[in-house]
Design a protein that fits this description.
- This protein has about 240 residues and is α/β, with parallel strands linked by helices.
- It has two domains: about 150 residues, Rossmann fold (3-Layer(aba) Sandwich), CATH 3.40.50.10420; about 60 residues, no CATH class.
- It is about 40% helix and about 20% strand.
- The strands form two sheets. It has a six-stranded parallel beta sheet with strand order 1-9-7-4-2-3.
- It is globular, with a radius of gyration of 17 Å.
Length: about 240
């Protein structure tokens, strides 16, 4: 899979695209181009791994639903994200042709990518890119969603089917329980191949289900400037 081809295809669909060799290069770019404004986040392991909520908070008002301020809830914080000038998120998969696929439980991340912001920025690891639309949707449902469910300790069938075995392997590797080191647990999950993950979407009715809605961007929505930041190597789920 050629990243330059993907970049070209995304640009044809209206996106501004940058490819960075390192995470630090991407963080430096975002810090230099986002300043003096309000920034909303869609739930993203990639954004967390890059510590962007702290980096961008140095010069901006940052609103992150997964980390609500005292007296706020996930819902009230997510509502505020819909009114920010800038919205950051990742993607569960991107096809070689440049279609962006995201799957969501509450819908706030999908809503933020569609309308209401002057600038939308995707930060996407190379591990999520390539293949056809059918392969991208399959990745979103059967790899990204279960890894997110495991990372959030959701009691969904996709997670519960393998959490005991994966926790055992994690303890053998790190000599600690997953709950003792959330970052190490997330790194462990990120690096699992599909075969090592060994689970799939059960199309469940669980109240903790995180894949209620699926969104495909065939091209950039016309309402906002949208950028895609591609990180070489693995990032996020």
């Amino acid at each position: 899979m050629n990243l330059d081809t993907v970049k070209s295809n995304l640009e044809k669909k209206g996106y501004t695209v940058f490819i960075f060799d390192t995470e630090q290069d991407a963080v430096s770019y975002l810090k230099s181009t986002i300043s003096g404004t309000d920034v909303g986040f869609g739930g993203s392991q990639t954004l967390t791994d890059l510590d962007l909520r702290h980096v961008l908070a140095e010069n901006n008002k940052v609103i992150v639903p997964d980390f609500p301020e005292e007296g706020e809830s996930f819902r009230s914080t997510a509502d505020k994200c819909l009114d920010t000038e800038v919205f950051l998120l990742s993607a569960n998969a991107v096809t070689e042709a440049g279609e962006i696929v995201n799957i969501d439980g509450t819908g706030n991340r999908l809503a933020g990518s569609l309308y209401g912001h002057k600038r939308v920025i995707y930060v996407i690891g190379e591990n999520k890119i390539g293949g056809t639309l059918e392969e991208a949707i399959r990745r979103a449902r059967n790899i990204a969603a279960p890894k997110n469910a495991l990372g959030l300790y959701r009691r969904t069938p996709c997670a519960m089917a393998v959490v005991e075995e994966l926790s055992r392997r994690f303890r053998e590797q790190y000599q600690k329980d997953p709950e003792e080191d959330q970052l190490a647990w997330q790194d462990f999950l990120r690096d699992l191949s599909e075969e090592e993950l060994n689970t799939h979407c059960y199309d469940c009715k669980s109240p903790g289900r995180i894949c209620a809605s699926l969104l495909v961007h065939w091209q950039k929505p016309s309402s906002a400037k949208a950028e895609v930041i591609i990180l070489k190597g693995k990032a996020g789920f």
